[in-house]
TrEMBL record:
This is HNH endonuclease. The keyword Hydrolase applies. GO terms for molecular function: endonuclease activity. Residues 10-21 have a biased composition (Low complexity). Coiled coil: none annotated. It holds the Pfam family DUF222.
Amino acid sequence: MPTTIRFHASPTSPSNSPTLSKGSSSRWSPMTTLEGIVFPLVADDESLALLDGLEQLGRRLDGARVASTAEVARRADIEYDGGTDTLSERMGCTGKLDLIMSVTHVSVREVKRRISLGALTSVRSEVGQLRPAVFPAVSAALAAGEIGVDSAEIIVKGLQEVIRQADPSDLHLAERVLVANATGALNDDTAGLPGAGIALPADRMRVLVHEWQARLDPDGIAPQEEAREAKSSISFGSFERGLYRIFGGVTPDLRGEFETYFASRLSARATVKFLPTAGPAELAGADGSDVVPDTELAGSDGADVVPDAEVVDIDRRPAGEKRADILRDMVREAARDPKAGVMGGSAPTVTVHVNAVDLNAGRGVGWIDGVEAPVSLTTVDQALCSGGFIPILFGPNNEVLRVGDKRRAFSPAMTKAIMSRDGGCIIPGCDIPAYWTELHHVKSYAQGGKTEVANGVCLCYRHHHAIDTSGWQIRMTNGRPEVLGPAWIDPSQTWRPAQNHRANRAVN
């Protein structure tokens, strides 16, 4: 049997949301019955009005839920009947958290969030008397549905940090201004302020709260930094869905250093370009195309090399993925530093263990010291390609019978020679410098490829990790690498000289 949902809104507080369109009559009222509404079929202006109205109602309900949760939490541990039972005990619960979760079926995190916010925004009952909320302006806005839980939480938590240091009148002024910023209200407190009258989202409110904290307690910034420095930490969570989660926090100055460094590495990449070596007549073609045509620049077998043509691989990964790779490069570079700490008598080195039978059969997994999760054989093979390996023969009782010499690893002299030749990752458009790259065997070791300068190239982690799936191909001609881009990047499918060191380009 279908259920009709009818919302009843209070007529007391008008919405501060902007009008959808000038002269529009599509204003959704919370009295509207939602039964039968098919959201994908609603017109644009009506859809926005519906979203606005639902959000207004949601804020009212959220405010009431916070107040109700805080009140039940207050009553839950009060002893009744001569001190024999609490409300939680009478309901068969272990405490207020258990009681509220049993009624609401929400997570313990959400219960704690509501209790914490309600303690600062709800009217308090002390010795039979009602006392105003710690933050009355936030309390009123939350109860009226003019402010969301996110913004309310940001305001009260931020002001609570400086409540002991700030002058009470200044603190209440800050609260009123912040509430006005969150609701878009125009009053004497906000007159003349930038953006006055525009309701700001919760993320922007966080920035304003930090500004007010600095104004209310300017002398507290230095002590806070010392305390936060002591609390700075980075830790790893459990292994889930192929990834380890990272937890922790850093000081503002370290965050600034990270952001600056990330920004310098995340700057805009070059765009795709196909620059043919044809003469002026061909360059001024009638169609204006700058794509290298197969018929003019490539032989029938597609094996000709176009010396000056450039094909660029645009990095389309999300910024978060790029930051992770940048952080990996930073750690690797630090480990190479001669001043780095020593582990087992040598520089910090990731050791990957793999069973030789599994490796030869192309199945199984590898294991990294200190990490409980396995890695794929693809990762193992890339580690072998760039770092080499040491064969160890074990006996039937797991005793070590023989330790071989390191194999498949480019010597320091080879590494310097390859890096000097390539100057960085050889894939066109990649700007990863040589000292952050890995060395790759062009002809694989398993196929008889030798560990020598003429069979090694520089690849960044991203391109090395995807060299078997990305479509890029590499070959060596007269000791120099050439690349063939995937068809979606280079429709001409032409072998081209790989990126090389700028000093070599100057000589050429």
